[in-house]
Design brief:
Blueprint lengths: L1 E3 L4 E2 L2 E5 H13 L10 H27 L3 H29 L4 E3 L8 H25 L3 H27 L2
Antiparallel strand pairs: 1-4, 2-3
Helix pairs in contact: 1-3, 2-3, 2-4, 3-5, 4-5
Length: about 170
């Protein structure tokens, strides 16, 4: 299953995306010249992997929400999912501004079939993602990209703490 993520048009710039327009303006302001020439293919590959990871998390967290009847858990997982959506959008904007292409995303693994294994999987994934995002932040000299991945790493660590709490306090 392959999906192409398409953002909405910019209201005053036909043919341009709101997110792309904003990010390109930011990059051009801080890094005159051709930003694309300063980005390694390894960094682009990592950003693409991060986008796919966020997409996978959004999908699996929807399933987790459906698997529990506890409204407090549903609410917290929904908030975590919203953070993942924000990360997905931000990373997609970055990717598009660097490549002039929309990212192509697909589900790369199945989500766990029950709530308890879903929590364990989410906890492990969040913890691994923290390290991965710090690594991406260290690879770039672009301050905007660095800041976005550092912030996302902080969010992911917070998510891991929540999932660990859920693992230890649910039946």
């Amino acid at each position: 299953m392959v999906h192409t993520i398409v953002t909405g048009p910019h209201p005053s710039h036909p043919g341009a995306c709101i997110e792309k327009h904003y990010y390109n303006s930011y990059v051009n302001h801080n890094n005159p010249g051709n930003e694309q020439s300063t980005v390694s293919s390894g960094l682009l590959s990592d950003i693409s992997k991060a986008i796919i990871g966020e997409y996978q998390a959004i999908y699996c967290y929807d399933i987790l929400i459906q698997q529990t009847s506890n409204n407090k858990l549903k609410k917290q997982i929904f908030e975590i999912k919203n953070d993942e959506i924000r990360h997905f959008q931000t990373f997609s904007q970055i990717f598009t501004s660097l490549t002039n292409k929309q990212p192509i995303v697909q589900l790369t693994k199945k989500c766990p079939s029950n709530f308890k294994s879903g929590l364990v999987s989410a906890f492990i994934d969040e913890q691994e993602t923290v390290d991965f995002y710090h690594e991406i932040a260290r690879k770039t000299s672009n301050n905007y990209i660095k800041e976005q991945f550092q912030q996302a790493a902080f969010d992911e660590q917070n998510h891991a703490v929540w999932f660990l709490y859920f693992m230890n306090h649910t039946n």
